[in-house]
From TrEMBL:
List of residues binding ATP: K40
InterPro entries: Kinase-like_dom_sf, Prot_kinase_dom, Protein_kinase_ATP_BS, Ser-Thr/Tyr_kinase_cat_dom, Ser/Thr_Kinases-Pseudokinases
Protein name: Protein kinase domain-containing protein
GO MF terms held by the record: ATP binding; protein serine/threonine kinase activity
Keywords recorded for this protein, A-Z: ATP-binding, Kinase, Nucleotide-binding, Transferase
Amino acid sequence: MHHEILVTDKLIGIGGFADVRRAIWMNSDRDEEEGELAVKIFRKLKFGDRENTLQVLNRRLYGEIQTWSRAQPHANVLPFLGIHYYEQGHLPALVSPYRPAGDVLEYVSQHDYKRRSLALGIANGLAHLHAWDIVHGDLKPVTPLSKTPKHSLPNPLSQKNILIHIDYEGKPIPQIADFGRAKILHVKGFTGSLRTTWRYTAPEVLNSSPTPTTPSTPESPVIAIPSDQENQLLTKQSDVWSLGMVLLHVLSGKEPYPTLSDFQIVIAFLNKEEPKEPDHPNLAECPAKERVWPLLRRCWEISKGPEARCSAKECAAALSVPLKEHTADSSVALTNHMPLPRQ
């Protein structure tokens, strides 16, 4: 980056290969909020075959830069500000604005705000990615989960991928982040492991991948997807499945399949079982709720297969109509940012 930044010791996120730290602009006339940054730093290599691992990390880094840059700019995509050479021995770090409001689930749990407006923003963001042939590949509201025997709580240091930006009018704008698993269609990916929360992952991805074994960390199962399968498994349709599950969680306040463990979810997928509406009673408080549930079912269509699902653009359009009918203010910043046309 052309501007000098200072990376602090404040850790704000932990991922499979990288840590995210707070940083600030040096010698900047930006205000306090604009001056705060998040820097994703890939860890130094201290294990295994260093050369091969470095090649994998380089591919991850290049792929993330390529897809994240292609997605710019959009109100519902976290801005990518550039790369920063952190210190010797590290790969270049990725720089973005810091979002102190946290992730979308943190925000809705603490603020009384129209969840449907947030849902529309998330759908608009994914529709924009798909308009540019970008598949996110790992859309979920928070990742991973930190579990105890009786409880499942978000890890405050987990790497979030739907963040909240508070605009100058004080309105929350959801922004899709974490492009570490994203890919551009027709561009070959890399070999890696998809560390994911199963309840947000499309059944064709789970059921077509190698049979999962008992993971070392049950709260964060790992699915190894060879590079020659990745382009086939991660699709716009699998993204839309994830979108439907994310919107269900945001709108109702309860995660999909709330009574099932991750391994039970795989069985439910094999039996083509959808989420059950009675498990999400708070959804009744959503404006035009009678339209929302059928829309979500179109996102997670399981009996007819992925091709029968709606598109992210169709989902966003359907969400925006009731907003115009039921709210006076709506979220202008969201509805004005429909997907850019493919050029």
